[in-house]
Structure formats: structure tokens, C-alpha cells
UniProtKB/TrEMBL annotation:
This is Helix-turn-helix domain-containing protein. GO terms for molecular function: DNA binding. Residues 5-60 form the HTH cro/C1-type domain. CDD domains: HTH_XRE (cd00093). Gene3D superfamilies: lambda repressor-like DNA-binding domains (1.10.260.40). SUPFAM superfamilies: lambda repressor-like DNA-binding domains (SSF47413). It comes from the Bacteria. It comes from Xiashengella succiniciproducens.
Length: 154
């Protein structure tokens, strides 16, 4: 069972922590099963099958047959992977094209909010502030109560 769980984590590209969150079990339960200390309970197996309906029950419990149900196997193999770094370039055909158009405001409708700052002062402030700051991490929260953290490389 330990080997099948490790194979599932690798195929689904999940860490033990993300797997525990997705399945709805304690992290320590996953850790103990992966280390061989404990065998999974029936409840644990049922939660895996609910979280991953494409997994074959016979494969998960007995290790027989294919890992994925036949209809889901081709879908899983064709699944696109998310790039490991947030800033990698995207394929041009998948990237939407945004067209910008210039809109001129009617002079009568213009309003000035706040006090005006000289262009040089404003640019200097932006450059100075940007060089002092750096991104430490980006966290994306999903509706299924999971999240993904992106950390800068290096």
C-alpha cells in the first residue's frame, strides 16, 4: 500500500502535505503510512477514493490492474502541467491578446483628485520603492480550501 500511495503522489504531482489536505486527513497519517509504520484504515482509503474518483479501487486496495479507471487514464495522461515557476513564458496560442485603445476624456469631465506631484519626484519615488521591495511568496487560495505557494527561485 505504501508503494501505491507513493506512486499516486508522484502521478498527481502532490506533496504529502498537499495530499493530506486534498484527501482531508491528518498529515501525520500520511507520513506514518509512507514510512511503513502504519497501514491505512478503511476510512483513509475511502477518503482517497472520494478525492480521486479516477483511481481504480482494485488497484488502490489490492494493487491489481491499472492505476486509473480506463476512461480517466487518457484524460490524466493528457493533463497539462502547470510550470514550476510563476514567470515562465506561455505559448502564444494559449495567451489571450488584449487590445488597448486610447480613450480621451472630455475636458469638462476631468477631475483632479489629491495633490499633483512633479513627474520627476513621482518617478524617483517609484524607482526607490521598487528597489527596496521584493516578492517573498505568492499564495493562491482555491475554493476547495486548498492553497498553493509560489516561492522565488534562488
Amino acid at each position: 500500500m505504501k508503494d501505491r500511495l507513493q506512486k499516486l503522489l508522484a502521478r498527481e504531482d502532490l506533496t504529502p502535505v498537499r495530499f493530506a489536505e486534498k484527501v482531508g486527513v491528518q498529515r501525520s497519517s500520511v507520513s506514518h503510512i509512507l514510512s511503513g509504520r502504519n497501514n491505512p484504515s478503511l476510512d483513509f482509503i475511502q477518503k482517497i477514493l472520494v478525492a480521486f474518483p479516477q483511481i481504480s479501487t482494485d488497484w488502490l486496495i489490492r494493487g491489481r490492474g491499472e492505476m486509473y479507471n480506463s476512461a480517466q487514464a487518457s484524460v490524466n495522461n493528457e493533463r497539462k502541467r502547470i510550470p514550476s515557476d510563476l514567470f515562465s513564458s506561455l505559448n502564444d496560442e494559449d495567451t489571450p491578446v488584449y487590445l488597448s485603445s486610447k480613450v480621451k476624456a472630455d475636458p469638462d469631465e476631468r477631475k483632479t483628485v489629491g495633490k499633483e506631484v512633479g513627474k520627476e519626484q513621482h518617478e524617483e519615488a517609484i524607482v526607490q520603492r521598487a528597489s527596496d521591495r521584493r516578492i517573498e511568496k505568492i499564495v493562491v487560495f482555491y475554493s476547495d480550501k486548498t492553497f498553493t505557494e509560489y516561492l522565488p527561485e534562488g
